[in-house]
Write a structure and sequence with these properties.
The protein contains six helices and seven strands. It has 182 residues and is an alpha/beta fold. β3, α3 and β4 form a beta-alpha-beta unit.
C-alpha cells in the first residue's frame, strides 16, 4: 500500500512539473512582425501591421512543411479561405521552414490560397508563445484570430490539426457578429 501511494505521489509530482501551454490569451496585444513569406510560390515581405489594416488575420503556427499533420492542416485552411475572405479575414501560416521550402509548400499544400511565412530565427514563434515544448526548434500547432486593432480575439493550441479551422472560423463569426452589432 505504501509503495502504491509513493508511486502515485511520484507520478503526480512529475506531471505537475510539465510546462503548460502558454499561447497568448484573448485580449492580449498581438505582436507585429515583418518576415519573408510565400504566396503561390512567389516570395514577398509579409507585414502583420499592414495585413491587419485589411481586416482580421487568422495566424496559425505549424511545426514543419510537408509533414503529415501540417499538410492536412494546410489543406483544411486552403479549403476554408473563401469563407474567411467572406468575413473579411486573411490567413497566414508560420513555421521555421526556409523560404525555399515554403515556396513549394504554398503551391502544393496551400493550393496557392494563402501565404506562409518563414520564421527561421523563431522570433515570431517566441513572441506568440508558440514554440513546441518538447522540440523547441519547431512551432507548436497554435492558431490565433487577430483583430484589426491588434488584439488576440482567440487562441487555440492542439497538436491535432482537426479543429483549428473550425475553431478559428467560429471565433471569427462570433467576433464579426459582435462588431456588426456595434
Amino acid at each position: 500500500m505504501k509503495k502504491m501511494f509513493a508511486l502515485g505521489l511520484l507520478a503526480a509530482l512529475s506531471l505537475s512539473t510539465l510546462p503548460a501551454l502558454a499561447e497568448l490569451k484573448a485580449g492580449a496585444i498581438a505582436p507585429d512582425f515583418t518576415t519573408q513569406a510565400s504566396f503561390a510560390g512567389k516570395e514577398f515581405t509579409y507585414k502583420m501591421a499592414e495585413q491587419r489594416k485589411q481586416g482580421p488575420v487568422v495566424l496559425y503556427f505549424y511545426p514543419a512543411a510537408f509533414t503529415q499533420g501540417c499538410t492536412i492542416e494546410a489543406h483544411m485552411f486552403a479549403e476554408a479561405v473563401d469563407a474567411y475572405k467572406a468575413m473579411g479575414a486573411t490567413v497566414v501560416g508560420v513555421s521555421n521552414d526556409k523560404i525555399e521550402t515554403l515556396n513549394k509548400f504554398s503551391v502544393s499544400e496551400c493550393s496557392s490560397k494563402f501565404a506562409v511565412a518563414a520564421d527561421t530565427d523563431k522570433a515570431i514563434m517566441k513572441a506568440y508563445d508558440s514554440v513546441m515544448l518538447k522540440v523547441s526548434n519547431y512551432a507548436s500547432r497554435t492558431s490565433y484570430v487577430i483583430s484589426p486593432a491588434g488584439r488576440v480575439i482567440y487562441a487555440f493550441s492542439d497538436s491535432d490539426p482537426a479543429m483549428h479551422v473550425a475553431n478559428t472560423m467560429a471565433a471569427l463569426r462570433s467576433w464579426s457578429a459582435a462588431n456588426k452589432a456595434k
